[in-house]
Write a structure and sequence with these properties.
Helix content is 59%, strand content 0%. The chain has 135 residues and is mainly alpha-helical. The longest helix is centred in the C-terminal third of the chain and has 29 residues.
């Protein structure tokens, strides 16, 4: 555990977490772009919108939050800095990540046709009702 003011050890979890977040954001955008190239309609738009929001959240907002550049929001009434700015950045982070995952998932669900109804099987001949005889 690092103490305030102590340098980060290069191989520590605290030092590698922002790098992992940046790589995750970029890889999500690349994977969504590969899916979107083969899709049509609204699914690539939703996938790319979600991936861009997640890329912004994972590559910019969360590493800044981990580095302490964005203040941590606590429900207490005392803040170290501007409380309005801290709350606004917290809301931006929550909105970006939640809407990003929602749009990416919705785009993938539309692309894989999970949300479509199965086609109805139409029959030209109607089966006889149970009370009718076959003769």
């Amino acid at each position: 555990m690092n103490y305030p003011g102590a340098p980060l050890i290069l191989g520590s979890i605290e030092a590698t977490r922002p790098v992992f977040l940046i790589v995750m954001g970029i890889s999500l955008m690349m994977i969504a772009w590969r899916f979107a190239k083969k899709a049509s309609g609204w699914s690539p738009r939703l996938m790319m919108a979600g991936a861009l929001l997640l890329g912004f959240g994972y590559s910019i907002l969360l590493p800044l939050h981990e580095a302490g550049k964005i203040g941590r929001y606590a429900s207490q009434l005392h803040f170290h800095g501007n409380g309005d700015l801290i709350l606004a950045l917290h809301v931006l982070k929550i909105f970006t990540m939640n809407v990003g995952w929602f749009l990416l998932g919705l785009g993938l669900a539309i692309h894989t046709k999970i949300l479509t109804a199965p086609p109805l099987k139409h029959s030209n001949s109607f089966p006889p009702s149970p009370h009718e005889s076959a003769t």
